[in-house]
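queue> pop job 88
queue> type: inverse folding (structure -> sequence)
queue> payload:
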């Protein structure tokens, strides 16, 4: 069987299985669609003004706010604190991730500004149905997403691709896992916006 490595490919594989059930012998597709997969399905390819798609967009915005905006605000401070502890305790270690705490702090500050713009301007405008004025703010958000991808590349470099030393302490391992989760969450957060939500309003 073929494993499905990304959410968008998983959704595509599910559609193939829906059309031809025997395709499940090839693709590893299990269980019903998740809530987010259903929203993706309802938004993908829907025309502007489609009421079901508009409702799906509103639900996806709610999901992004709860699953990503709120979670980032909780998890970045915790990761920064872990990084400061590791950098202080292991300052003499050649593998110490020097500069990681400061990099995480910069990421968190930039992300907070980005999320505030979405919460105060972009998302309310989307929910109000004012599609005609959204091209520039969406373009700006996508440009900022490019900056986040650069920051994530730096994060991976500082953590040696999220791999702690073999003899790393519990705190160092927790820091590595926290950074790996931030990377995974931010990438999925941006994918949902860039590939699913934003195209509905362009």
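queue> result:
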């Amino acid at each position: 069987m073929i494993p499905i490595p990304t959410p968008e490919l998983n959704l595509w594989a599910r559609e193939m299985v829906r059309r031809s059930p025997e395709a499940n012998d090839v693709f590893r597709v299990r269980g019903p669609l998740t809530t987010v997969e259903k929203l993706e399905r309802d938004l993908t390819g829907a025309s502007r003004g489609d009421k079901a798609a508009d409702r799906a967009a509103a639900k996806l915005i709610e999901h992004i706010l709860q699953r990503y905006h709120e979670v980032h605000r909780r998890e970045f401070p915790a990761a920064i604190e872990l990084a400061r502890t590791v950098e202080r305790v292991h300052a003499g270690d050649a593998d110490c991730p020097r500069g990681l705490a400061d990099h995480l702090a910069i990421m968190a500050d930039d992300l907070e500004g980005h999320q505030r713009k979405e919460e105060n301007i972009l998302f309310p405008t989307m929910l109000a149905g004012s599609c005609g004025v959204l091209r520039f703010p969406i373009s700006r958000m996508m440009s900022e997403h490019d900056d986040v991808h650069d920051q994530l590349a730096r994060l991976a470099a500082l953590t040696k691709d999220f791999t702690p030393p073999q003899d790393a302490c519990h705190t160092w391992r927790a820091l590595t896992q926290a950074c790996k989760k931030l990377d995974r969450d931010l990438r999925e957060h941006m994918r949902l916006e860039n590939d699913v939500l934003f195209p509905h309003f362009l």
